[in-house]
Design a protein that fits this description.
Order of helices and strands: HEHHEHEHEHHEEHH
CATH architecture: 3-Layer(aba) Sandwich
Number of strands: 6
Number of helices: 9
Shape: globular
Structural class: alpha/beta
CATH superfamily: Decaprenyl diphosphate synthase-like
Bound molecules: 3-methylbut-3-enyl trihydrogen diphosphate, magnesium ion
Radius of gyration: 19 Å
Largest sheet: 6 strands, parallel
Helix content: 40-55%
Strand content: 5-15%
Length: 247
């Protein structure tokens, strides 16, 4: 499907693409396989998507890999996901270096098993100087938790006279989110036919475009990625203005 890629305008790429990678479990179930096999196959789509985003020239890619709510899954599944995370980080360091991708992580990372934290910090440190793309993994991430910790930090600063309450605006809030070094999200993709945010980047998607597809995450190919970007590029983002003001 080479022709789809040629339809993409490289000058109008989303500067921040965020993906809710959903449907690994159903993919496995449809095939009579264990959910773990679905997650394993999901990692292949992760690698492909990361490489293709880097190839296109997308500057910021954020992947929702594990939510605060996902801790409520059966322990066996949580353990499987953590193990997969460790092995993927080990395996993909080379891919990240070759494509000059910097790894970043957002979420309540201290809740992750120590082994995951160590592996994560190692890959983050080793890729810190890469400038081509920032890949952010949302791990043990919940948007409400992110907002709560931001409110706490800001109120502490007000209490200690570091900032005045009058100074609190969008910038101050942005600076206290896990995503402080990332631009606003331009495009959100969610796979598997669900039409919800599931506690993902609630503040950051205020003016994002949404793209939903029924494709399950392990089946998310480069053509699917291109379709989403082409759809994004054909939309008129008005930011509250009239169509005439935009053109
Ligand atoms: C997404 O696939 C992966 C994670 C949430 C970790 P799911 O595991 O949610 O797959 P479904 O939604 O059950 O099909
Ligand atoms: C959202 O998927 C979280 C991730 C993709 C990591 P879920 O499968 O956990 O979402 P819900 O529970 O269906 O809303
Ligand atoms: Mg799901």
């Amino acid at each position: 499907m080479k022709h789809l890629e040629t339809q993409i305008n490289k000058l109008k790429l989303p500067s921040h693409l965020a993906i809710i990678m959903d449907g690994n479990g159903r993919w496995a179930k449809q095939k009579g396989l264990l959910r773990a096999v679905g997650h394993e196959n999901g990692t292949k789509s992760v690698r492909l998507t990361v490489e293709n985003c880097a190839k296109l020239g997308i500057k910021n890619l954020t992947l929702y890999a594990f939510s605060t709510e996902n801790w409520n899954r059966p322990k066996l599944e949580v353990d499987t996901l953590m193990k997969l995370l460790i092995s993927s980080l080990k395996k993909e360091l080379k891919t990240l270096q070759e494509n000059k991708i910097r790894l970043n992580a957002i979420g309540n990372l201290t809740n992750l098993p120590e082994k995951v934290q160590r592996e994560l910090q190692e890959v983050i440190a080793k890729t810190a100087e890469n400038k081509h793309m920032t890949l952010t993994l949302a791990l043990s991430y919940g948007s409400r938790e992110e907002l709560i910790q931001a409110v706490k930090k800001i109120s502490d600063k007000v209490k200690n006279n570091i900032i005045s309450s009058d100074a609190i605006g969008e910038n101050i809030i942005n600076e206290h989110l896990y995503t402080h070094n990332l631009p606003d999200v331009d495009l959100v993709i969610r796979t598997s036919g669900e039409h919800r945010l599931s506690n993902f980047l609630l503040w950051q998607v205020a003016y994002a475009e949404f793209y939903f597809t029924d494709v399950l995450w392990p089946d998310f190919t480069e053509e699917e990625l291109y379709k989403a970007i082409i759809s994004f590029q054909n939309r008129e983002r008005r930011f509250g203005k009239t169509s005439e003001q935009i053109s």
